[in-house]
Design goal:
By secondary structure, the chain is mostly helical. The chain has three helices and no strands. The protein has helices at residues 14-17, 26-29, 43-105. The protein is elongated. It starts with 13 loop residues before the first helix and ends with a helix. The relative contact order is 0.03. The mean pLDDT is 80.
Length: 106
């Protein structure tokens, strides 16, 4: 049977655990003239970068949402379109019957 380890009475602080290899000077903290400073992105470049990143993730979701929306609209429009089609056919049949009767009576 193992004996549990005793909890240490002292916990080291971060400065005691991590010791810098050399003291930091003001010169070492200043950016050097040789190091290129990244230029800030223009607003257009930032928009383009964000859109490119989002597009890869959202394109499929947007297509599905549009497809579902169009299908729902088609389901709502279909009865009205079918009723209009039926009315047009009825009108054409009536007109043909009238034309046929008029042709037979002449």
């Amino acid at each position: 049977m193992q004996v549990p380890k005793a909890t240490p009475r002292f916990l080291p602080t971060l400065t005691e655990v991590v010791k810098p290899s050399a003291p930091l000077s003001e010169e070492s903290m200043q950016p050097s003239a040789e190091a290129p400073v990244p230029s800030p992105l223009t607003q257009d470049a930032l928009v383009a970068a964000v859109m490119e990143r989002l597009l890869t993730n959202l394109e499929h979701q947007v297509q599905n949402a549009l497809r579902q929306s169009l299908e729902a609209q088609m389901e709502q429009l279909l009865p009205a379109v079918m009723a209009d089609l039926e009315d047009a056919v009825r009108s054409a049949v009536r007109e043909a019957a009238t034309h046929s009767r008029d042709a037979n009576h002449s």
